[in-house]
């Protein structure tokens, strides 16, 4: 297994650790910064999530730089991203930090695009993420981090940047999903 794939596997391994920190009722106290009260478990979860998210950029960087792009990496990298983001969003709904309907739309888009990728792969096509998809991913990551950190540091300004970021992520999620299906609409054309 090459280095980029090992980094991707490490991201998958961080998901259950993130889940355990966030879901098991540990009582490590609360941090207070700039009028923001953040449970320590949410802070630790945010750090784990941030590290896991950074591995997405790192594995891609090394795969391209060292010409180590593999089918295993093409399969596991987007799967790891979707597992990490979906886990975080579902936990945020459970913690009542994100509206369920927004998370349902985000996760539904991920399932739909994954299904489309499977159909394309069956025909021998592997579609790399485009810039809109990358923007979608990073807006989701930023929204998740702001929600995990209870809107730190913007809470001191009485500005809900966490919710603004979530709405921006929702817009890019829908937009990139529509774009993905539009660009690959030939899959659904009736063959004669």
UniProtKB/TrEMBL annotation:
Q: What is its main location?
A: membrane
Q: Which GO terms describe its biological process?
A: phosphatidylglycerol biosynthetic process
Query: According to its record, how does it sit in the membrane?
Result: Multi-pass membrane protein
Q: Which residues are listed as membrane-spanning? A: 12-28, 40-58, 79-95, 141-159, 165-183
- Which Pfam families does the protein's record reference? CDP-OH_P_transf
| Localization per Swiss-Prot or TrEMBL | Cell membrane
Under the heading Gene3D superfamilies, the entry gives: 1.20.120.1760
The alphabetized UniProt keywords are:
Cell membrane, Lipid biosynthesis, Lipid metabolism, Membrane, Phospholipid biosynthesis, Phospholipid metabolism, Transferase, Transmembrane, Transmembrane helix
Q: Kindly indicate whether the keyword Lipid biosynthesis belongs to this entry.
A: yes
Which reaction equation describes what this protein catalyses? a CDP-1,2-diacyl-sn-glycerol + sn-glycerol 3-phosphate = a 1,2-diacyl-sn-glycero-3-phospho-(1'-sn-glycero-3'-phosphate) + CMP + H(+)
Q: Does the keyword Transport apply?
A: no
Pathway in which the depicted protein is active: Phospholipid metabolism; phosphatidylglycerol biosynthesis; phosphatidylglycerol from CDP-diacylglycerol: step 1/2; Lipid metabolism
List GO terms (cellular component aspect).
Answer: plasma membrane
* The protein's Enzyme Commission number: 2.7.8.5
Q: What is the uppermost EC class here?
A: transferase
Q: Briefly, what is this protein's role?
A: This protein catalyzes the committed step to the synthesis of the acidic phospholipids.
User: Cross-referenced NCBIfam families, in alphabetical order?
Assistant: pgsA
**Which protein family is named in the record?**
Belongs to the CDP-alcohol phosphatidyltransferase class-I family.
Kindly provide the name given to this protein in its UniProt entry.
CDP-diacylglycerol--glycerol-3-phosphate 3-phosphatidyltransferase
Organism, by scientific name, is Weizmannia acidilactici
């Amino acid at each position: 297994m090459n280095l980029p794939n090992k980094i991707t596997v490490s991201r998958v391994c961080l998901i259950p650790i993130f889940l355990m920190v966030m879901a098991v009722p540990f009582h490590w106290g609360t941090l207070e910064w700039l009028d923001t009260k953040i449970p320590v478990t949410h802070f630790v979860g945010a750090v784990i999530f941030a590290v896991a998210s950074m591995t997405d950029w790192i594995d891609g960087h090394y795969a391209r730089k060292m010409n180590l792009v593999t089918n295993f990496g093409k399969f596991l990298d987007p799967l790891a991203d979707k597992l990490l983001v979906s886990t975080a969003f579902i936990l945020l709904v459970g913690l009542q930090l994100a509206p369920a309907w927004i998370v349902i739309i985000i996760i539904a888009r991920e399932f739909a695009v994954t299904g489309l990728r499977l159909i394309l792969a069956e025909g021998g096509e592997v579609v790399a993420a485009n810039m809109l998809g990358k923007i979608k991913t990073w807006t989701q990551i930023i929204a998740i981090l702001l929600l995990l950190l209870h809107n730190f540091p913007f809470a001191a300004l009485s500005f809900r940047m966490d919710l603004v970021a979530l709405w921006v992520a929702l817009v890019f999620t829908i937009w990139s999903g529509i774009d993905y299906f539009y660009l690959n609409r030939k899959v659904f054309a009736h063959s004669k």
